[in-house]
Write a structure and sequence with these properties.
Number of helices: 14
Distance between the termini: 44 Å
CATH superfamily of the largest domain: Tetracycline Repressor, domain 2
CATH topology of the largest domain: Tetracycline Repressor, domain 2
Number of strands: 0
Structural class: mainly alpha
Oligomer: single chain
Largest sheet: none
Radius of gyration: 20 Å
Strand content: under 5%
CATH architecture of the largest domain: Orthogonal Bundle
Shape: globular
Number of domains: 3
Length: 292
């Protein structure tokens, strides 16, 4: 694996390759730890590959393809020309979250005790590992936090882009984005919780990268509210502040919503779409929407 200057095209190619590698690993029933051990790299390094942060050499790609039972060309370029691509999962679908034991242990510990209150020993206990077992693949607690936040923002942005693309006009795009945010912060409430509470614990330069991803999410909503106001479909006199209030409202869901409560994520998403339309002062005749 080598490092070099990244262009936007390089970054996009690495992210797409990482997504294909992650899916191939899951299809093969392997964990990050399984792949890392077989390829003789650390779990942290392989996590960076799957998140598009580390370049993968051709030799390593061929080895990974062999391990995962696929073709390196398919991993590098996507579907082969004669293959029929499987339909992409909907942004509304949330399969059970699958994390490797150290990441699962870290997530549980960070949610309950906070980043600074959770020790590597606590994380190891919750992961069912020894302390040296965690340190073998994750050099520091900071690496675990960054991996979890990278995973959160990559997944959220992927879903938000797909949700926004479904909308026809600023009202529909806005409601899809709000629905996406509400669904994510209920179905993935643990990730959403540390995303909101532990950014202050992230060191540079990772903090800047993760903050940029959060800003991209906010800008999607900002742009639809600004366009809605420009067209007279939304009547808030403060579009930027209203957009920020809507996003903040959704990202606060992990602080109170519980799967044991009376309302499902889908019910909450529908309610929050209505709340958001009121915040931006969208007229109901312009704001026809449906939340399955």
């Amino acid at each position: 694996m080598t490092a070099g200057r990244k262009t936007p095209e390089d970054r996009q190619a690495r992210e797409e390759l990482g997504r294909r590698l992650r899916q191939a690993r899951r299809d093969a029933g392997l964990t990050l730890r399984d792949v890392a051990a077989s390829l003789e790299v650390s779990v942290g390094t392989w996590s960076a590959v799957e998140n598009g942060h580390t370049r993968l050499s051709d030799t390593r790609l061929e080895a990974a393809a062999g391990l995962l039972g696929t073709d390196p060309t398919v991993l590098r370029d996507g579907q082969s020309p004669d293959a029929s691509p499987d339909p992409a999962p909907s942004w509304r679908d949330f399969a059970p979250l699958q994390l490797d034991p150290p990441l699962a242990g870290a997530l549980e510990a960070f949610v309950e005790l906070g980043y600074h209150g959770a020790s590597i020993r606590t994380i190891a206990q919750r992961a069912g590992l020894s302390v040296p077992g965690v340190y073998h693949h994750w050099p520091t607690k900071q690496h675990l936090l960054v991996a979890l936040l990278d995973l959160t923002m990559e997944d959220l942005l992927t879903r938000a882009r797909a949700a926004r693309a479904e909308g026809d006009g600023p009202i529909e795009r806005f409601t899809r984005l709000v629905e996406c945010l509400a669904l994510y912060h209920t179905h993935r409430r643990e990730l959403g919780f540390i995303g909101a509470s532990e950014m202050r614990s992230v060191d540079k330069p990772d903090r800047g990268r993760i903050a940029a991803a959060r800003t991209e999410m906010q800008h999607m909503v900002d742009e639809e509210v600004a366009e809605g106001c420009r067209r007279g479909l939304m009547r808030t006199p403060l579009p930027k502040q209203a957009a920020r209030a809507v996003v903040t409202m959704c990202t606060a869901l992990p602080q109170w919503w519980s799967p044991s409560g009376p309302s499902s994520p889908e019910v909450v998403a529908g309610q929050y779409v209505d709340f958001a339309l009121d915040v931006v002062r969208a007229t109901r005749v312009d704001a026809q929407h449906s939340v399955p």
